[in-house]
Amino acid sequence: MLEQRQPVLCAFSVAGYPDERAGVEALVAYARNGASVLEVGAPTTDPWLDGPVIAAAHRRALRSGGGDGVAVTLATVRQVSALTRQPVVVMSYWATVAARGPQRMANELAASGASGCMVADIPPEEVESWTAAAARAGISAPLLAGREAPPGELAAVCRAATGFVYAPAVAGQRTGYSDGLDLEALASFVASVRRAAPRTPVLSGIGVSTPGLAASVARRTGVNGVVIGSPLIRAYADGGPDAAVGLLGEFAASVSRAR
């Protein structure tokens, strides 16, 4: 999914935010203005790993979509994948996947045009069955590598991931964190991930709050890409689609200069 040798920019938004049509238009605009990967959050009532900005987007998306987070996600992915050439990866919580049924969820995502689905909070005992379901459906199953996980557990997650490994830029924080990054610590963590899974691309997000930080992460930590979500959603909430697309362009230019 990530064939580029140089770091890429992945743009995240919640499906159905602020509504289905506007959400699709925003993601397509991100693809046309520098995002090489599009990550689509499946709206849920309990986005417990997310900070207030993305959590609020989940709530609004559910209201605008009549409460069916999976339906608006599939509709969004179907439209965005048809309108762009960039891979579209869904980010879901395990409660959503388990309620739908892992194989059904994987099959429906594949049919909609998704390239993969990262289940951010998947229980360790479900990893093997989920990655197998994704493989049968023909989509990747990226996984989140916990910064505080024991070495054996970290290695197992990294080896099981397909598509990419998501390496949080900070430890123990929710999305939207903006108090600075320890780039040396992140580089060390990325090196640990690569030792476990040397052929799997690594993306990093959470705490990459400015274009300058995105450039530093891309240049100094050895990742294959940088993920931004909260800054874009905040810009959209404050200034509408033009503000979000403008900020996306600044992030894309910074990451490009870091190559």
List the helices and strands and how they pair.
Blueprint: E1 8-14, H1 20-32, E2 37-41, H2 52-64, H3 69-83, E3 88-92, H4 94-100, H5 102-112, E4 116-119, H6 127-137, E5 143-144, H7 151-160, E6 165-168, H8 183-196, E7 202-205, H9 211-220, E8 225-228, H10 230-257
Parallel strand pairs: 1-2, 1-8, 2-3, 3-4, 5-6, 6-7, 7-8
Helix pairs in contact: 1-3, 1-10, 3-5, 4-5, 5-6, 7-8, 9-10
Which descriptors would you attach to this protein?
259 residues; alpha/beta; TIM Barrel; eight-stranded parallel β-sheet; 10 helices; 8 strands; globular
What does this 3D model show about the protein?
By secondary structure, the chain is an alpha/beta fold. The chain has one domain: TIM Barrel. It contains 10 helices and 8 strands. Strands 4-3-2-1-8-7-6-5 form an 8-stranded parallel beta sheet. Helix 7 crosses helix 8. The longest helix is centred in the C-terminal third of the chain and has 28 residues, at 230-257. The radius of gyration is 16 Å and the shape is globular. The two termini are 19 Å apart. The relative contact order is 0.17. The mean pLDDT is 96.
Strand content: 5-15%
Class, according to the CATH hierarchy?
Alpha Beta
Radius of gyration from the CA trace?
16 Å
The string of secondary-structure elements, in order, is EHEHHEHHEHEHEHEHEH
Name the CATH superfamily assignment: Aldolase class I
From the N-terminal CA to the C-terminal CA, the straight-line distance is: 19 Å
What share of residues is helical? 40-55%
Structural class: alpha/beta
The biggest sheet, with number of strands, parallel, antiparallel or mixed sense and barrel status, is: 8 strands, parallel
Q: Please name the CATH architecture.
A: Alpha-Beta Barrel
**Low-pLDDT segments:** none
CATH third-tier fold name: TIM Barrel
Number of strands: 8
Any idea how many domains? 1
- Helical run tally: 10
Strand order of the largest sheet: 4-3-2-1-8-7-6-5
Q: Which overall shape is indicated by the principal axes computed on the Cα atoms?
A: globular
Mean residue pLDDT: 96
